[in-house]
């Protein structure tokens, strides 16, 4: 039952809500119950053609030959599409914001990288005719060794899954093979911690299984345009993607949608729109491309699998002093949205807890599995599961109640996060208190008195600690993964200074392109033997273990801090969409 | 291959069309006769969004041969409302928020209609059984079950 | 492309089936039409039977005869067949049951074929009609053993003796989805008793082999015994004889072997569920 706890944070709200907390009829409900709601497939077209694709039966194989002659002659067949028919047969979804390289063909060219990859499309007068003709397409494959495990894929010598990324990882900012987060000095803190706990977590792919399968209908419209009825969750995202692949100005595409028969993230990939539009362009007739249920379940991209390692340094009194997360997103064969998932994951670390030393290395690995994509909190869901299981294990190790343990370590307003932003509107403490109350879970008086509004942003909680930097995981250098620290960013530094050297890399088709991402200056010179920052060294010894956690852990402010950072007031870099998008270190405040 | 003529009553109106010999009724209803109430969700019988009544009995249109419906009465969710007047099932679905994306709704309504026609005062278990072949991925079954029970309690629910 | 032929008589349909290897009978179509929709069946002829005999039920005498076109819903509508209602109700939702035929169930691969498991425990016979000739009754077990080879032509009807006492007949389908789902395994038992001792027990399993099978070992262990701890123990020991379960999306082979004795014990002990 919904209950609004207006007593909490009452002064942060004016209570003039006139929808929240009330029952309001959905405006699309009459359409639903009268069956008048029009989903993408609920549109009649004269002369409608049906498109079906031939998919790879192999996880990894070279295509030796394709013979479509029998299919093209089959009754009712209007057109057979192959890779060469696709005007721009390489795309990555986030290319619309210039993030990542084009890596995925609409129809496979010379090799297939996952079971179910589309190779040939058959367009016919009826679904039955398209299905019958599909069986007549002859494709000869030469199977290649596949790789299915994220960590195996990153080993030197692993089979190359995706030729655009020959090292089997997504390349972040043309510099690292992963998303990096560095805050303080986790190694020094582990050395100092009373208890260090490391565990491995794993999540399998999850299919969205929408009741309506992915699909679209594209039809020639007046004035040389094409109308497209689609279930796309991001209608204009799909329009832009389609325009690029079929090489039309986007104003020649008229996308109609917004009525989605269940999406949950699985309808952002434009799985059908480009080929449907291309079919309409090449036949001059309306073309319908709908995945069947088996295709939806097996080849409609899922929430990707993840493997996560969490290592925590814990004091006996229950304070977490360091957290290091290393995780691997299984992108499958192509990028889709996994590059973004890793960014979201990084932005979520270390969970809703204030921890003075945090680092993470979040990898996106290519494997010969179905490409994965968005799904409800993707990037965060699995790591959150892992973090919360880890929290229970830590609480147990510290001999603390798991609820009190969370209250003890929760973010409070004003705390500085590893991303160098200030935590605002924090509410974990109150959530745990209310949950405990509802569950009749006993909390100590002290825990019940805690508040997200009090105690945050004090002492060390307000500081950006001196941060150890490294060059681990440079692109193309797997041996650098275990490399030592290379230097220390002074306490208070918001970011690594940007280089002033002009950059002309990242070009497409040989033409100089605008700088895609800012370049960082070389890291500050390695500190001699990298002594742990003074602050850390001077931290008082942990108080003796007790069952009542100290809710205001002594938070000494990092001793003599070099005068704040003076990040060179370099002219703000070209804040290209891609950079803004991927920067979890940005200074933007909400 | 030659098309075959099919004549049937659709929601009370006599209709005729031509079909491919092995065409599923779902295709005929949607593409041939323009009734988009029954949906395609699986073509396997597993989701129930294509549920229609054939001579009053629930059937899955995706697995029914269109030619087998020649001369029979097919009813879909399009025919549930009586002109502008909604059927008690429809008003109950609205009142109980028994639809989210709405894709399963026509099939759910049809399954529920078949239940109430045979059993005007079902128990909760009977409602659950009646919609056990209908998948909803969004709403959760509870509001749907409550809506059907509420409709059964409303006057006029048995109205075919 | 697929064609459809509608046959007014069983003999005509049987003739078509025997004359043309590309002809497939369509009963309720719940499996055939799926293959059509998914493009696995694109050529040949679907043979439809409209002969009333195909859907006839003779329930009067001690020997019951059900046309192969009889649906699960038709079984559920007849009180005389109450002992078969749990088996019929275990198949799909209401809209599947109005279509799914008994004949089609005989051909459904694992983990389907739940009704067939019940029929096997009833020692049913299958009436086959090959070509235009008359029907020929075959033991269901032999029919199933030959099923993989195909080409058996038309099943016209199914016959079995009504259990003397309906309580002697038990059916149990184990599935993981509520309110219903496909089978982890299906068990049926007919346990006629003479003077407190089991005589001519018939036990059948579904999803424990490529077709439903008889549990001969269990039948032997129970023969002439009262249903007591000793005989149940012996039955459990023999439970896995002849089993060749598959690993599928529902359960692994290992799991099926592990839990079969548990479910068998519950079935024999008469635990209702
Ligand atoms: C959602 C769903 C759930 C299901 N759940 C179950 C379940 O829980 N348990 C279960 O057992 N099954 C289940 N099934 C499978 C199927 O519905 C049943 O097995 C049903 O009994 C098959 O009968 P049918 O008449 O539909 O077969 P059809 O699809 O018509 O035919 C199936 C096969 O049998 C052949 N055939 C049919 N009748 C004859 C005949 N008289 N003579 C010769 N050949 C014949 C056909 O040629 C075809 O090869 C389910 C199906 C669906 C779609
Ligand atoms: S489309 Fe018919 S049951 Fe899913
Ligand atoms: S409301 Fe979306 S499937 Fe039921």
TrEMBL record, chain A:
State the organism named in the record: Aquabacter spiritensis
What is a single molecular function from GO for this protein?
iron ion binding
Domain Aldehyde oxidase/xanthine dehydrogenase a/b hammerhead, chain residue ranges per copy? 34-145
- Comp. bias (Low complexity): 482-493
Region ranges (Disordered): 472-590
Residue ranges annotated as compositionally biased, kind Pro residues, are 521-534, 541-572
Instruction: Tell me the keywords, alphabetical order.
Output: Molybdenum, Oxidoreductase
Q: Where is the composition biased (Basic and acidic residues)?
A: 502-511
**SMART domains cross-referenced by the UniProt entry:** Ald_Xan_dh_C
Protein name, entry field: Aldehyde oxidase/xanthine dehydrogenase-like protein
One Pfam family for this entry, by name?
Answer: Ald_Xan_dh_C
Please indicate which superkingdom the organism of origin belongs to.
Bacteria
UniProtKB/TrEMBL annotation, chain B:
| Top-rank lineage group of the source organism | Bacteria
State the CDD domains in the record. Answer: fer2
* Record bears the keyword Iron-sulfur: yes
Q: Name one GO molecular function term.
A: metal ion binding
Domain 2Fe-2S ferredoxin-type per the UniProt entry, residue ranges: 4-80
Q: Does the keyword Oxidoreductase apply?
A: yes
Keyword annotations of the record: 2Fe-2S, Iron, Iron-sulfur, Metal-binding, Oxidoreductase
Which Pfam families does the protein's record reference?
A: Fer2 (PF00111), Fer2_2 (PF01799)
Q: What is this protein called?
A: Carbon-monoxide dehydrogenase small subunit
Q: What is the lineage of its organism?
A: Bacteria, Pseudomonadati, Pseudomonadota, Alphaproteobacteria, Hyphomicrobiales
From TrEMBL, chain C:
Judging by the UniProt lineage, the source's domain of life is Bacteria
Keyword Oxidoreductase appears in the UniProt entry = yes
Give the matching InterPro entries.
CO_DH_flav_C, CO_DH_flav_C_dom_sf, Diverse_Substr_Oxidored, FAD-bd_PCMH, FAD-bd_PCMH-like_sf, FAD-bd_PCMH_sub2, Mopterin_DH_FAD-bd
Instruction: Select a single GO molecular function from the record's annotations and give it.
Output: oxidoreductase activity
* FAD-binding PCMH-type domain boundaries: 1-165
Signal sequence, renumbered to the chain:
none
Keywords (A to Z) from UniProt: FAD, Flavoprotein, Oxidoreductase
A Pfam family assignment: CO_deh_flav_C
Identify the PROSITE patterns for this entry: FAD_PCMH
Task: Tell me the Gene3D superfamilies matching this sequence.
Answer: 3.30.465.10, CO dehydrogenase flavoprotein, C-terminal domain
Q: What name does UniProt use for this protein?
A: CO/xanthine dehydrogenase FAD-binding subunit
């Amino acid at each position: 039952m919904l209950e609004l706890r207006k007593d909490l944070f009452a002064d942060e709200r004016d209570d003039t809500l006139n929808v929240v907390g009330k029952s309001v009829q959905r405006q699309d409900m009459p359409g639903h119950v009268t069956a008048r709601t029009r989903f993408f497939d609920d549109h009649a077209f004269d002369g409608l053609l049906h498109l079906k694709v031939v998919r790879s039966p192999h996880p990894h194989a070279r295509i030796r030959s394709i013979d479509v002659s029998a299919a093209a002659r089959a009754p009712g067949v209007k057109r057979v599409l192959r890779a060469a028919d696709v005007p721009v047969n390489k795309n990555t979804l986030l290319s619309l914001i210039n993030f990542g390289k084009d890596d995925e063909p609409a129809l496979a060219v010379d090799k297939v990288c996952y079971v179910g990859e589309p190779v040939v499309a058959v367009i016919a007068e009826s679904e039955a005719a398209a299905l019958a003709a599909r069986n007549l397409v002859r494709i000869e494959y030469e199977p290649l060794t596949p790789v299915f495990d994220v960590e195996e894929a990153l080993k030197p010598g692993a089979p190359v899954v995706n030729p655009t990324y020959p090292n089997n990882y997504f390349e972040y900012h043309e510099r690292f093979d992963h998303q990096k987060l560095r805050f303080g000095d986790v190694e020094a803190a582990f050395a100092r911690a009373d208890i260090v706990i490391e565990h491995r977590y794993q999540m399998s792919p999850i299919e969205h299984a929408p009741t309506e399968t992915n699909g679209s209908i594209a039809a020639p419209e007046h004035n040389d345009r094409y109308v497209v009825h689609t279930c796309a969750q991001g209608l204009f995202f799909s329009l832009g993607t389609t325009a690029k692949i079929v090489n039309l100005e986007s104003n020649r595409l008229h996308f109609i949608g917004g009525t989605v028969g269940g999406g949950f993230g699985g309808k952002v990939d434009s799985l059908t729109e480009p080929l449907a539009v291309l079919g309409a362009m090449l036949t001059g007739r309306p073309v319908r491309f709908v995945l069947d249920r088996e295709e939806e379940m097996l080849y409609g991209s899922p929430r990707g699998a993840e493997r996560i390692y969490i290592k925590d340094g814990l004091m006996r009194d229950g304070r977490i002093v360091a957290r290091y997360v290393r995780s691997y997103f299984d992108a499958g064969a192509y990028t889709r949205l996994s590059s973004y998932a890793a960014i979201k994951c990084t932005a979520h670390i270390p969970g809703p807890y204030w921890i003075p030393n945090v680092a993470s290395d979040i990898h996106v690995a290519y494997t010969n599995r179905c490409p994965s994509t968005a799904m409800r909190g993707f990037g965060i869901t699995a790591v959150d599961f892992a973090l919360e299981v880890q929290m229970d294990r830590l609480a147990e190790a510290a001999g603390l109640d798991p609820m009190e343990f969370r209250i003890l370590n929760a973010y409070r307003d004003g705390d500085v996060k590893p991303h160098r932003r200030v935590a605002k509107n924090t509410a974990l403490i109150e959530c745990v208190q209310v949950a405990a109350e509802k569950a009749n879970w006993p909390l100590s008086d002290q825990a019940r008195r805690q508040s997200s509004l009090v105690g945050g942003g004090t002492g060390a909680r307000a500081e950006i600690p001196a941060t150890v930097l490294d060059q681990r995981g440079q692109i193309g250098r797997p041996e650098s993964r275990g490399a030592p620290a290379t230097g220390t960013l002074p306490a208070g530094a918001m970011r690594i200074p940007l280089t002033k050297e002009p950059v002309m890399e990242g070009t497409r088709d040989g033409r100089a392109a605008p700088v895609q991402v800012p370049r960082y200056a070389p890291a500050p010179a390695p500190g001699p033997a990298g002594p742990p920052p003074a602050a850390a060294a001077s931290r008082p010894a942990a108080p003796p273990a007790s069952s009542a956690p100290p809710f205001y852990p002594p938070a000494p402010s990092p001793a003599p801090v070099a005068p704040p950072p003076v990040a060179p007031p370099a002219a703000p870099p070209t804040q290209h969409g891609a950079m803004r998008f991927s920067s979890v270190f940005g200074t933007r405040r909400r | 291959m030659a098309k075959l003529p099919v004549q049937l009553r659709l929601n009370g109106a006599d209709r005729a069309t031509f079909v491919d010999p092995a065409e599923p009724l779902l295709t005929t209803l949607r593409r041939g006769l323009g009734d988009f109430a029954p949906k395609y969700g699986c073509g396997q019988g597993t989701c129930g969004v294509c549920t229609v009544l054939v001579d009053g009995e629930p059937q899955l249109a995706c697995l029914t041969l269109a030619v087998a419906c020649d001369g029979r009465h097919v009813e879909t969710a399009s025919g549930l409302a009586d002109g502008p007047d909604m059927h008690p099932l429809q008003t109950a679905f609205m009142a109980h928020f028994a639809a989210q994306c709405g894709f399963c709704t026509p099939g759910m309504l049809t399954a529920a209609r078949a239940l109430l026609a045979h059993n005007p005062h079902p128990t909760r278990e009977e409602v659950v059984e009646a919609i056990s072949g209908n998948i909803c991925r969004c709403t959760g079954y509870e509001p749907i079950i409550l809506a059907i029970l509420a409709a059964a309690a409303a006057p006029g629910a048995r109205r075919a | 492309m697929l064609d459809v032929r509608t046959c007014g008589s069983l003999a005509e349909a049987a003739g078509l089936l025997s004359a043309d290897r590309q002809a497939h009978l369509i009963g309720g179509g719940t499996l055939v039409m799926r293959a059509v929709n998914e493009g696995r069946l694109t050529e040949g002829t679907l043979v439809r039977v409209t002969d009333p005999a195909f859907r006839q039920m003779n329930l009067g005498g001690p020997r019951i005869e059900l046309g192969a076109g009889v649906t699960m819903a038709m079984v559920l509508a007849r009180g005389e067949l109450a002992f078969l209602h749990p088996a019929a109700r275990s198949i799909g939702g209401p809209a599947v049951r109005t279509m799914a035929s008994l004949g089609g169930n005989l051909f459904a691969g694992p983990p389907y074929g739940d009704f067939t498991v019940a029929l096997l425990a009833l020692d049913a016979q299958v009436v086959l009609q090959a070509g235009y000739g008359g029907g020929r009754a075959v033991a269901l077990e032999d029919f199933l053993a030959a099923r993989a080879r195909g080409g058996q032509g038309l099943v016209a009807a199914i016959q079995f003796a009504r259990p003397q006492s309906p309580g002697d007949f038990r059916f149990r389908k184990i599935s993981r989805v509520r309110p219903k789902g496909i089978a982890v395994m299906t068990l049926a038992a007919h346990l006629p008793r003479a003077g407190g001792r089991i005589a001519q027990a018939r036990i059948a399993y579904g999803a424990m082999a490529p077709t439903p099978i008889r549990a001969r070992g269990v039948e032997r262990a129970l023969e002439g015994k009262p249903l007591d701890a000793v005989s149940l123990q012996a039955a459990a020991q023999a439970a896995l004889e002849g089993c060749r379960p598959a690993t599928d999306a529902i359960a692994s082979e290992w799991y099926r072997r592990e839990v079969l004795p548990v479910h068998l014990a519950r079935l024999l002990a008469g635990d209702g569920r």
